[in-house]
Amino acid sequence: MNIQRFLKPLHAAILAGASLALPALAQTGRGPATPEEVTHVVQIAAASDKDPLAAMRSADGRWFQKWADEVPDYNFGPDRAAFWLMSGAAKGELKRVVVFQHAVSTAAYQLQHHVQDPRATPESFEGVTIAGLEGVLRAYENMLAAHPDIRTPELDAAIAARDKGTLAQFVAALPPLPRR
Q1: What is the average pLDDT across 2-15?
Q2: Domain boundaries, the chain
């Protein structure tokens, strides 16, 4: 009898815990990135290099943003370049566009180079950061051709560094990410 008194509350607690955990498990039920999704992200990044505003506003751009938040096997997060872009290197609509471009460029790089967590090593983090900024600069140059009024000295300095072969040093000199 004494054991039943112990088991009933334990059983109730296990059932209550399971009922609370099941909805959370159902929400994370999506699997890892599929080869088709990887190909799709790389295609979106290539299209965004040419016309980032159109890519950002497209159904593919919206799909990418949702996918990047949900895919469980890759960590896509901010880096020094993203922080620099959001902290004033670009303003207004240009900021939104280059932040999107940075995100899709870093994601494409991570997927192509199988970098699931760029923070795992300093080399991975630097590679992802540089790839993201290179994507931003390609898109920025394409946008400048049609809209020369969007020019910013910060992005022009990054282009100059890239053209001199010193983009890695440029990135290393960017402000650090804020502490969490």
Answers
A1: 43
A2: 1-30, 35-172
